């Protein structure tokens, strides 16, 4: 981004962008971060800092960090989280698996997870990227 593309005022759709930055979908949050990063305003910077420090998906955190750096903010990229992205995820996945009939397929498990806990599905899909299905299938197979 060229510095002359950055605007100092608040975008006319700020409230919409702020809401999008807090949605379940990591893609919507990422898009909101990209757009908010074009506006050098205390309110947009505050939203970007919140995403950088609190998002469950590292690519959203990194995008917010890069936008803040481009805006001249003195920020440090948070380290990638290790362990579970969502507290207690294994227990939740076990409950979902046990709620399905014996002999259910991986696809049935995946669909029920998406329907019941979109927040978990979305966070891990965003974090795992192209490896998400393989990862989830391995986790599903290992659940007792």
Shape: elongated
Unreliable segments of 5+ consecutive residues: none
Strand content: under 5%
Radius of gyration: 18 Å
**Cα separation of the termini:** 49 Å
Report the average pLDDT across residues: 93
Helix content: 55-70%
Q: What order do the SSEs take from the amino end to the carboxyl end, as H and E?
A: HHHHHHHH
* Strand element count: 0
Count every helix, treating DSSP H or I runs of 4 or more residues as helices: 8
Q: How many discrete domains?
A: 2
Task: Describe what this molecule looks like in 3D.
The protein is mostly helical. It folds into two domains: 3-70, no CATH class; 89-142, no CATH class. It has eight helices and no strands. α3 (42-54) runs antiparallel to α4 (58-70) and α6 packs across α7 (118-128). The protein starts with 13 loop residues before the first helix and ends with a helix. 24% of the residues are buried. The model has no long low-confidence stretch (mean pLDDT 93).
Provide the descriptors you would attach to this structure in a database record.
144 residues, mainly alpha, 2 domains, elongated
In short:
The chain is mainly α and 144 residues long. Helix content is 61%, strand content 0%.
Secondary structure: elements and pairs:
Layout: H1 14-20, H2 26-36, H3 42-54, H4 58-70, H5 89-99, H6 106-116, H7 118-128, H8 132-142
